[in-house]
Structure formats: C-alpha cells, structure tokens
Automatic annotation (TrEMBL):
This is Uncharacterized protein. The keyword Membrane applies. Keywords: Membrane, Transmembrane, Transmembrane helix. Residues 55-95 are annotated as: Disordered. The chain crosses the membrane at residues 12-36. The keyword Transmembrane helix applies.
Amino acid sequence: MNSGEADRTECIIRMVTLIGGAVAAVLAIVAVTIYARRALKQALVESELDANADKAENAGHEGSATDVEFGSSPEEFKEALDSGGDEGEERSWGQ
C-alpha cells in the first residue's frame, strides 16, 4: 500500500467510526426517552391511585372539626367542635 491509499483507508475508518458513534448516540437518546416516558406514566398512575385512595380514606372522616371549610363562620366551627366530629367515638384528649 502506498501512502495515498493508507490515508484514504484511515479517513474511511474515521468516518465510519464517527457515523457509528453518532447513530449509537441517537439510539441511546431515543431509548432513554422511551424508558423515561414509561416510568413517568407509571409514576403518574401510581400517584393518582394513591390520591384516590387518600380521598376514599378521608371520605369516612367527614363531619370532624378539622373538616370545617375555610371561610366558615365561627358558629359553624364551634358547632363542629362541640359535636366532636364522628358521633359515638370517644375522644381521649391529652392521653
């Protein structure tokens, strides 16, 4: 091989390496994007399920003094406090 052919072969090897690296980088970015989207969707679904479970759990505690809405009148708040929230439930203050 003469010097011209060696330079040309070296140039071809460099170009193939660069193109191969660029293709591999693009494929890696696409793969990470797909994986991240799936993981985010799964986390969102789990978060919504947890929020719905919390709502269902808190629905059973309606009527307690802590559930008085913001902006309620002082009388409504006192009434909720006096009623003790859940009826029939014994309160143990300070125990």
